[in-house]
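Write out this protein's structure.
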Amino acid sequence: MKPAAAKKVEGASSSRSGTREQDAPTTLVPKLRFPEFRGAEGWNQVPLGQISDRVTAKNKHGDCTRVLTNSAEHGVVDQRDYFDKDIATAGNLEGYFVVERGDYVYNPRNSNAAPVGPISRNNIGKGVMSPLYTVFRFKNETTDFYSHYFKTTCWHWYLRQVASTGARHDRMSISVGAFAAMPVPALSPAEQQKIASCLNSVDELIATHTRKLDALKAHKKGLMQNLFPREGETQPRIRFPEFRKAGEWGERLLGSFIEEFRSKSTVQDEFEVMTSARSGLVRQRDYYDNDRITERDNIGFNIIPPNYMTYRSRSDDRQFYFNENNLGITGIVSIYYPVFRVINGSNKFLIELLSSFSRVVGKYSVGTSQTVLSLNQLGRIRLPFPPTELEQQRIASSLTTLDDLIAAQTQKLEALKTHKKGLMQQLFPAPEATGARQASPLRPEAVEA
């Protein structure tokens, strides 16, 4: 799906404007450009410090107590909302930077999601930030263009080039002058606004579909709270009309519904290595983009055929995973993932029941620093079950319908995110693609001086 603004963009080749000397400024030309800018010159590059000021105002008297953080995934967020608790204490906030709405924040901590650390705009309001962060404010108030620019990787090469090895391997060490010398694109306000408006429209569409997905998940959660008895109760709040006179639910041993599957892999086995993810049980090579367990290492792993279940025995989350038949493969999982199948009832019903009673199930784990829930212990847990298997299937069917809607909505959302990522790669020229790395005249020492 393409927003109307994005459809107006037409192709333009990436090139350098004319022949320039090695120490002369290099212009950048995006691969996609709106029609009204196709004949315009390429983008210049200027030091970040030329169009922005570093923010160093401290929270001297501790008047501001709202602590913000810059996460790689969500950008600038309230620390309490992000961590569900206060990481920084009120008495230690005097040395924190005061950050206003619209300021930009660089977090030097790197991660898989932000290889050189994220730069994000503060869109949530006034707060304070750790002095480990770099805060800067653009001289021009209209900064939507740069908000999108810093979500690309176009500037990563520069930080890698000027960073020195710090005391911590997960944190970039960059001097104030080097950061201020970062080359950023400088183009006409009209073209900046056009690009920003296009990407803003995509963001609004992504936000709409995200809200729809969240609503579907919330609906399913609420439905499960009513279709299954709540903790401490034995009867559900809602039953389908055809089962309201079928008799009450009763507590049954899980062991009467499941059977352990004991089969280990050998060096001759050629099964897919599988791992647990938020979306369920997935092939390891799809999830990590590489095989973290080699063929030689997988001897003795637990085999899990289609329609069998597993869970992490050494974990507190007690999330259960179903090797759905539509995946169509027999896989292998770590020895810490017991494998079992349902012998009495519905697969879908049981996995949703276990999810609904995850806290109850977790209480049966044993151990101190590392809790363990064996399959034998799982079998001794009593949970409420409907009097007939037919009611199990009816509940499972209603939840499966919701899961299908959630899966379809997730696919739409991922497609939009992929579209935006590809669009940004075309709208923002990468310096390495134009030779700007070699020809860039922006030197940290010049800015520091």
